Fold:
Amino acid sequence: MAAATLRPVTLPLAALLVYPATLLLGSLYSTISPTANPSRDTQLASPLAPSLAADLHLSESPVNYFARKNNVFNVYFVKIGWLWTTAAFVSLLLFQPLYSSSRPQSSSQQETRLRRTLQAVLRYALATTAWYLSTQWFFGPAIIDRGFVVTGGKCERAFEKVEELGTGTTDLEALFTAATCKAAGGAWRGGHDISGHVLMLVLATGFLAFEAVGASAPAFPSRFGPTGDAGRERKASDADSPPTVGTTESGGVAGTWSLRLVWGVVGLGWWMLFMTAIWFHTWLEKWSGLLIALSAVYAIYILPRRLASWRNVVGEPGI
Structure:
C-alpha cells in the first residue's frame, strides 16, 4: 500500500502573486474608470512621473469615500496599521496551541514550543524593523523620505516661507520628512514617493498570513534533519508511534477568535491596498513599495525554505 506523508501546512510562494495582481487591477481601474480618473488639478502627464508626495490626490471633494485621506479606515486602521498587526500577532502567541497549551507537557514539548515562540518573535522583529526603517526612521529620515529627496523632492511651500524670512534652506531641506513638511505647512513635491501605504499593507498582511497558516495547522515534526537536509518524512505506517512534538490540540474559543482577528486584519488590509492602488500614488511609486515589502517577506518566509543556516535561525511557521 502506498505510503501517505504528512507535511506542515504553509503558504506557497505563488500566494504572493495576489499582491501584484491587486496593484495591477487597481491601477488599471484608476486609468480606465471615469469615476476614478476625473479631471484633477494635480493630474500628471505620465503615471510614472513624480507626484505630490503622499498622495496623487483627487479633487477637494472626491467622488469616492475611500479617495478621502480622512476616511475612517485610513485614519483608524492604516495609519496605525502596525498596532493592529502587533495585536493580531500577539493573539496568535497567546491563544494558539502551537505556542501555548494548558495541557501537561513533557520537557521536549516545552522546549519545542519555546523555540517556536522565540523564532516567531524574531520573525515579527524582522518584519517590524523592515517597516520601521522604511517608513519611520533610518538614522534620521526614513528610507522612503531619503529616497524622495535623492530623486529631487523637496518641501516647496515651507522653503518659500523660509526664504521670505531670509534664512538658509539647505539644512532644512536635509532634515525635512514628509510628516514634518506637512506639519510646517509645506508641500512634499518633485521626487519619487515610494508608497508607504503599499509597503506597510503588503508587509503586514503577508506577515500575518504566513504566521496564521502556520499557527492554525496541526504541528508535525520538522521535515528537516539536524543538518538542514530533508529528513525522513512521517508515513502512515508510523501512525502507531505518535510524533514527539506534534499536536492536534484545539485552541478553543480564544484560539478561534484570535484567528478571526488575524484574518480580519488581513482582509481589511487587502481591501485598503486595493483602494490605495485605485486612488493614490503613481504606478511606479506603488510598485516600488510592493518590491520592498515582498523582498522582506521573501527573506523572512521563503528564503528559510531554501537556506538551512537561515532556517535554523528564524524557523518556519508551524514547524
